[in-house]
Amino acid sequence: MNILSAEFLILCAASAVFLWVFSRFQRKLPVLLCNLAFLYFLRARPQDLAYLAALIISTWLAAKLIKAWPGKRWPLVLSVSVPAAVLLLFKYAGFVLPHAGIMMPLGLSFYTFRAISYIAECAKGECEVKDLIAVADYIAFFPVFQAGPINRPQPFFKQLETPFVFDYRDQKNGFIQAVLGLFQKLVIADQLSHLTGAFLNVKLSGIYTLLGVILYAFQIYVDFDAYSNVAVGTARLLGFRISRNFHTPYLAVSLRDFWNRWHISLSSWLRDYIYIPLGGGRKGLVRKYLNTLAVFFVSGIWHGSGMMFIVWGLGHGVLNVLEDILRQKVGVKPWMKWFAPIAVLFNFAAVAFLWIFFRSPDAAEAGRIIASLGSVQLPASAAELAETAGITYNELLWAGVLILMVFISDLMRYKTDMLEFLANRSFPVRWAFYLALMIIAVIFGVYGPGYHPEDFIYVTF
């Protein structure tokens, strides 16, 4: 089951009503029943469900063990190492043993990191040890089960232990956020996916490859932002507030700024549980840079088992280190703000270039795309550009419109909460906007026979 299926939509609606009715005093058991319903419709393999159950129980026991042995490091190390090792086993078994036929359970990367968060927070004394049902609710919370965000335990448990209070504005905003996520996926991300494939055709090079790289940068951003918005909006319908996962990352003026805006839940997780425990920037510049490289190495192997993911992660790590060295030498000057648009363009170029390694299955494909960027193959006109790429002229124009939509919406979201902005508009203005979205979705959305909505990019991680 995926978030675009009728089953998921029905489950969300039924779960919201169920929690409204039965969560007036406490939510733990109702949320657990909703999670179990999701796992049933997910149709996961028995062994995957068995591992999830084992992880939940072991995480619950690990917190109790840490509480029973205060000040001892071995319970924390053991409790974190085992699920991390299992995650690596699933991710890299197919890479080391390509014919082993080992399939990774859906959502494993995300719920493993949630389990580690809970254990680490209990060890730091930031989170109380919870009962088994509460731990199961947190690890298997179905809106974020498949592809995040990686929400933290303390805010979740605080909301879990308070009565559900129906708030019309909150419910409406959650529904709108989820619908906007669906719009992003059906109308923008999947259209960009088709166009990306056309321009990155092995027979094309030059301007075609460059446009393909740019289109893919926008595709992966909108695709994952769409999933995150559906997940956050769905959680809001169930009475849970989960922090946003993206905040206009392509308007970042530096790579450090980019990672404060991109996949925020993962970035903050790596900072809190990898970078800071390794010493962060407290033990000198050399140690700081090694810790930075370690964080991005972990980010690379978390995303996938191929060598290209490691190259992508370390590429970001090296550029972050070089950027920090430059910042140490030059500092931040008042006049630099006037060059912010140029910094945004340079930063986007660096991020888009590194996406080549993320998308490529091997070094040969990445090398082909990079080599294709250097060749000259300029079309005589936009019509010829479209024809050579195997798309229509209208599709080419639509690609420009889609990117412009993303750019304008990000400019608006840069300093404004779009949900609150819409909520504060008059009734005619709001519904004119909703009607426009519905018309665009019906005309330009990608769906119907042959469409596989489970193909969210980050679900595979």
Structure description:
The chain has two domains: 6-166, no CATH class; 170-460, no CATH class. It is built from 19 helices and no strands. The chain has helices at 6-22, 28-42, 46-68, 74-96, 108-124, 132-139, 153-160, 168-199, 207-237, 255-259, 264-275, 285-303, 307-330, 340-359, 363-373, 382-389, 393-413, 418-423, 427-444. By secondary structure, the chain is mainly α. The mean pLDDT is 87. The two termini are 16 Å apart.
Gist of the model:
With 461 residues, the protein is mainly α.
Total of domains: 2
- How many helical elements? 19
Structural class: mainly alpha
Distance between the termini: 16 Å
Q: Encode the helix/strand succession as letters.
A: HHHHHHHHHHHHHHHHHHH
Quote the beta fraction: under 5%
> Could you tell me the mean pLDDT?
87
Which range best describes the helical content: under 10%, 10-25%, 25-40%, 40-55%, 55-70% or over 70%? 55-70%
Radius of gyration over all CA atoms, rounded:
23 Å
The counted number of beta strands is 0
Largest sheet: none
- The best one-word shape is globular
In the predicted model, the low-confidence regions spanning at least 5 consecutive residues are: none
